[in-house]
Design brief:
Layout (H helix, E strand, L loop, with lengths): L4 H11 L11 E5 L2 E4 L4 E4 L2 H4 L8 H13 L10 H14 L3 E5 L2 H18 L5 E5 L8 H7 L2 H4 L9 E4 L4 H7 L4 E6 L2 E2 L5 E2 L2 H14 L2 E5 L23 E4 L10 E5 L1 H4 L15 H16 L2 H18 L7 E7 L2 E6 L4 H9 L2 E2 L1 E3 L3 E4 L7 H17 L3
Parallel strand pairs: 3-15, 5-6, 5-7, 7-10, 10-11
Antiparallel strand pairs: 1-2, 2-3, 4-12, 8-9, 11-12, 13-14, 14-17, 16-17
Length: 398
């Protein structure tokens, strides 16, 4: 069975729920930081499935781990334990310092789990269940997570929206404190806002927030669905700040491309959960946990954290050097290979032009070109991404 890109898009338009604005592409094969479409055209992937394919496409260790596990055991029930699930839980606990782990299937599920843990802990301590969130955030597409995100465009037509969420400006500790009362269960944020435009938290803000949550005995929740698992050059972005959360969510890069989410919690806060309080059918099955273990092993064995820091620094330097010739570039934000090139013009036309030049990136927050390639992308491919970015800016000048 083989289809052309055009044929696949016709099927998409006829049968698929029209939730995505698709680019006119369909891909058949990937290897490393390269993708090939149905007609055999080759692309450099600087999007990595939106920060998912952290060890690239078709990494042999990941492929072998999935194949070997599929031959033995794909799925059981969480009535039982499996070796991959237990080894992965132990590994993530040791890496993060957070004692308790629960596996789901996505980032949104992980965030939902985090909300439940925070609220159960608060309930046992005589507090209400409101979660304070940051403006400009993104936490998912379920009913609760669009409420947590708080963007009106995402909530339009879906009333009644779940209650129990409020929003304050990012990096404003005094405004956070003003919102806290006995009804508040926790404070949730992304250490680096992804969809919002690659905006890092300020170190002083997170340190004061940690001290304040300790003072009030409320949960501090870090959503590291996008910025975790080596994306910033640290295994977890919170390591840049020296501030450990009570609860952390992971997904995207954790499985190397297979769907897995995780919520991690400290013993103190996670211990509030009782039998039957939460559950999942598919979450943490042997196949996805074997894939996640292989992904973590590749990151460690190939020194991808160090490479990510070095390549990210080099990329930022090259972008800033180019500002004299490209006044449309106002700056670049982020850490490691979670980067946002800030433009004075709309970023969607730039990204569309990059795609015509066979480089895949992403436009977000109106004027940001998001660069989140595989962590093992070569310097040569990063140079092509830069060259195409600059050329695309030039071609969109009026």
């Amino acid at each position: 069975m083989s289809y052309t890109t055009e044929e696949l898009h016709k099927i998409d338009q006829e049968y698929y729920l029209p939730t995505f604005k698709r680019y006119p592409l369909a891909f058949k094969k990937g290897k490393g930081s390269r993708l090939w479409d149905m007609e055999g055209n080759e692309y450099i992937d600087a999007l990595a499935g939106i920060a998912v394919n952290n060890i690239g496409h078709g990494h042999p260790k990941l492929v072998k781990a999935i194949a070997d596990q599929a031959q033995n055991l794909i799925h059981i029930s969480n009535f039982y334990v499996s070796e991959p699930q237990m080894v992965l839980a132990k590994k993530l606990s040791e890496l993060s310092g957070l004692k308790r782990v629960f596996f789901g299937n996505s980032g949104a599920e992980a965030v939902e789990g985090a909300i439940k843990i925070a609220r159960k802990y608060a309930s046992k301590n005589g507090r209400g269940g409101t979660i304070i969130n940051m403006k400009n955030a993104f936490h998912g597409r379920t009913m609760a997570t669009i409420a947590a995100t708080g963007k009106k465009a995402m909530m339009n037509g879906f009333d009644p929206i779940p209650e129990g969420f409020c929003h304050v400006p990012f990096n404003e500790i005094d405004l956070v404190k003003e919102k806290v009362n006995q009804d508040v269960a926790g404070i949730m944020l992304e250490p680096i806002q992804g969809e919002g435009g690659i905006i890092p938290a300020e170190a002083e803000f997170l340190k004061k927030l940690r001290a304040f949550c300790d003072q009030e005995n409320i949960a501090l929740i870090f959503d590291e669905v996008q910025c975790g698992i080596g994306r910033t050059g640290k295994m977890f972005a919170f390591e840049y700040y020296g501030v450990e959360p009570d609860i952390m969510t992971l997904a995207k890069g954790l499985g190397g491309g297979v769907p897995i989410g995780a919520v991690l919690a400290s013993e103190k806060v996670g211990g509030a959960i009782d039998w039957g309080d939460h559950g999942t059918t598919f979450g943490g099955n042997p196949l996805v946990c074997a894939a996640a273990l292989a992904t973590l092993e590749v990151i460690e064995e190939e020194g991808l954290l160090e490479k990510t820091i070095a390549n990210g620094q080099w990329f930022r330097e090259q972008v800033m050097k180019a500002t004299a010739d490209y006044p449309e570039i106002e700056g670049i934000r982020g850490e490691g290979l979670m980067l946002g090139v800030v433009l004075s013009v709309e970023s969607k036309p730039i990204v569309a032009t990059m795609m015509k030049h066979k480089v895949l990136a992403n436009a977000t927050a109106g004027n940001i070109v998001r660069i989140v390639p595989p962590l093992n992308i070569s310097k040569d491919d990063l140079q092509v991404v830069l060259d195409v970015l600059f050329q695309s800016i030039k071609e969109n000048r009026k």
